[in-house]
Amino acid sequence: MRDFTDARTPDQEDELWVCEHQPVYTLGQAGRSEHIHNAANIPVVHSDRGGQVTYHGPGQVIAYALVNLRRAGFSVRSMVTKLENSVVNLLHQHGIQANSRPDAPGVYVNEAKIAALGLRVRKGCTYHGVAMNIDTDLSPFAGIDPCGFQGMRVTSTTEQGIEIPTEQLVGQFVQSIHQQLESG
């Protein structure tokens, strides 16, 4: 992502990379190791994204948004809001009330975090993005203070009762992100 961003030209199209990772804890630029209580056998990787510590693993979809903010006319805050709203709107389509919080980027259902968000801006372009828990083993979150918040509960779409095939939900998630980014 960093190489892609560094090599971008001003007119190069934006990209959205969607993937799933093997188990890993990532510490953002503000990440403090005291927020990791028990990494067990899960690797800890330092990342240049914003934010504290989070877990990535199978069953979690990550959308890396490689967007030229200047060309799109977005501020960093509006980009964060668009990514959060893509999750909120998707969950709303499935009858789940979700919200963002001004004090902690991400998306929450009944105060439990369902999506984490961390961006990096370089040369006026974003990279990194949003991770949404779908059918994720949530137990690794017990080894950390998610996003630096002690005792923060974490949830998933499966735990919230969404029972459609993962591929279908990921497709809806990508579509929701595109709708947010195209809304200007």
Labels describing this entry:
4 helices; three-stranded mixed beta sheet; 184 residues; BirA Bifunctional Protein, domain 2; 28% strand; alpha+beta; six-stranded antiparallel beta sheet; 9 strands; single chain
Q: What does this entry look like structurally?
A:
By secondary structure, the chain is α+β, with helices and mostly antiparallel strands. The chain has one domain: Bira Bifunctional Protein, Domain 2 (BirA Bifunctional Protein, domain 2, 2-Layer Sandwich), CATH 3.30.930.10. Helices cover 24% and strands 28% of the residues. It has four helices and nine strands; from the N terminus they run αβββββααββββα. It has helices at residues 2-7, 69-72, 76-93, 166-182, and strands at 15-19, 24-27, 44-46, 53-56, 60-66, 99-101, 104-109, 112-122, 125-133. The strands form two sheets. The protein has a six-stranded antiparallel β-sheet with strand order 1-5-9-8-7-6. Strands 3-2-4 form a three-stranded mixed β-sheet, with no helix packed on it. β8 and β9 (125-133) form a beta hairpin. The longest helix is centred in the middle third of the chain and has 18 residues, at 76-93. The chain is globular, with a radius of gyration of 16 Å. The model has no long low-confidence stretch (mean pLDDT 96).
